[in-house]
C-alpha cells in the first residue's frame, strides 16, 4: 500500500478518536477503558502473528530479521502489560462497588 494513504488513515483515526473520547463524561472513562481492555487482546494476536512471520518467513534476511524479531517480542511484552494492567484496574474498580462485610 501507499505509505501516504496509511499515514492519512492513521491521522484521520487519531483525530476521530480524540473527539470521541473528548465527549465522554468523566464518570464513564474507567468503565469505558475497562471495556476496551478486551480489545487489547487483538494487539497481542497481531504482535504474535508479526513475530511469528519474522521468525519463520524471513530466515535469509540477515541482521534485519533479528531486529524484527526483537521488536516483535517487545510488542508482545508491552501488549501483555497493557492487558494485565487493564484487568488490574478493572478489578480495583469493581472492588469499590462491593459492600463491606459486617464484623
Total of helices: 3
The level of helicity is over 70%
Morphology: flat
User: How many β-strands, per DSSP?
Assistant: 0
- Runs in which pLDDT lies below 50 for 5 or more consecutive residues are none
Q: What value does the average pLDDT take?
A: 78
Question: Over all CA atoms, what is the radius of gyration?
Answer: 19 Å
Helix vs. strand class = mainly alpha
Distance between the termini: 65 Å
Written as H for each helix and E for each strand, in order along the chain, the element string is HHH
Largest sheet report:
none
Strand content: under 5%
List the helices and strands and how they pair.
Elements: H1 3-22, H2 29-56, H3 63-95
List keywords for this structure.
103 residues, 3 helices, mainly alpha, flat, 0% strand
Descriptive report:
- It is flat, with a radius of gyration of 19 Å.
- The model has no long low-confidence stretch (mean pLDDT 78).
- Helix 2 (29-56) runs antiparallel to helix 3.
- The protein starts with a helix and ends in an 8-residue tail after the last helix.
- The protein is an all-alpha fold and 103 residues long.
- 79% of the residues lie in helices and 0% in strands.
Amino acid at each position: 500500500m501507499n505509505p501516504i494513504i496509511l499515514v492519512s488513515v492513521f491521522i484521520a483515526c487519531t483525530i476521530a478518536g480524540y473527539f470521541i473520547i473528548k465527549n465522554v463524561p468523566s464518570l464513564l472513562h474507567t468503565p469505558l477503558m475497562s471495556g476496551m481492555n478486551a480489545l487489547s487482546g487483538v494487539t497481542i494476536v497481531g504482535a504474535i502473528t508479526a513475530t511469528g512471520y519474522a521468525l519463520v518467513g524471513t530466515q535469509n534476511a540477515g541482521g534485519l530479521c533479528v531486529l524484527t524479531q526483537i521488536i516483535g517480542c517487545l510488542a508482545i511484552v508491552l501488549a501483555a502489560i497493557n492487558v494485565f494492567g487493564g484487568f488490574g484496574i478493572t478489578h480495583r474498580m469493581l472492588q469499590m462497588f462491593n459492600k463491606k462485610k459486617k464484623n
